[in-house]
Every structure is written in structure tokens, then in C-alpha cells.
Amino acid sequence: MIIGILGGGQLGYMLALAGYPLGLRFRFLDPSPEAPVGRIAPRVTGDYEDEHALERFAHGLHVVTYEFENVPVEAARRLTKRVEVYPPVAALEEAQNRVREKRLFQKLGIAATEYAEVGSRGELDAAVRRIGLPSVLKTCRMGYDGKGQWLLRTSKDVEKARAEIIRWWRIITAEEFCGFRLHPRRMRRRVCRGRRKRRRERCWKNWNTWA
Question: Does residue 105 fall inside a structural domain?
């Protein structure tokens, strides 16, 4: 099986190293000619929305996935015309916007932290009063690993955040700060075989990552 991965950074690198012992092969698409996966797998260098690059990337692939959640949705949508893409484009689109993601969780009955949409200084003050401190401000899009996030523990943190996030108005969420003791995880494998692509799935037992 040849798996295509959008994104060629360290996460993709580790994914390929984990997949090789299972007999899997990989091809990557990344805009950077210096993306590290080029050392261990074929890499197509091109913009994610470059039609020619997408065609070269998709040729002969069995399935496509993502290295990270901020790849352009349109690129994934175009690839669905050539090859199966997982997680589905709809899931990718929801995951890229924290407000939409929270609303989806609420709709599906999935527990989530209390949050408020913030689009002005007044809404920020109201959110802090309702949610309390500590809390966290997050950009709705593109933030990850602490980027685009502000931890608010005191009123001084709130004042500092006001000055720093002025350029982000209309794309901020304020969320309740939650400590946790463990992070439950679950692994699922899907295998497609044969011309009719009969699918078999296997789920492993849940396990916990301790904080």
C-alpha cells in the first residue's frame, strides 16, 4: 500500500518510520524543498493547491491522509476526486476552526470546556467574568502547540492579552482552563483490499497518556 501524506515535517517523518516495518510505502507533498521527509521517502515539492503538483502526488496512491490539521481544505477536496482521503474533508474543515469544532461537539453531545466567542474588548471582559480565571484565549484558526494562545491567570494577563491580540479580533475564543491527569487515546486501523476495496477495521483497547 502506498500512502500519500500532505505535509512533510517531523510528524510525517515519524509516521513513515513507524509504517515501514508494516510494509507500507509513503509519498509526501510539501511546499518546502527542505522538508525533512525527503531523506526517507519520495517527496513532491509544490504548493498544496498546485493542480500539477497534486496530480503528481496522487498518481498511484491507495489513500491520502494529513500530517497536520492546517493543510488547505481545497487541496484535500481536490484529491478526493482521485483517491480516498481520511479523515474526510468535512472533518478536516471542522477541525480547522475552534468555534465550529466546539459547536459540533455540542451537537454530538461530546463534553467540552466552557467557552465564549470573543470579537471585541467588551466581549473579552464579559467572557472573563463568565468563565473566570484561569482561562485560555485561542485563535480560531492556525494556532497550535501554544502558538496563537494566551493563558490568563490574573487581571494583568488579561490586560497584556488585550494589547497583543488586537490584530486577532473576530477570530478568538475564550475557554475554561482545565487541568487533566490523563489523556485517553484509541487506535483504529482500516484496511482496504481487493478490487471492490472491501474494508476491514480493527480497534485496539483504549490506553491513557498520563500528564
Answer: no
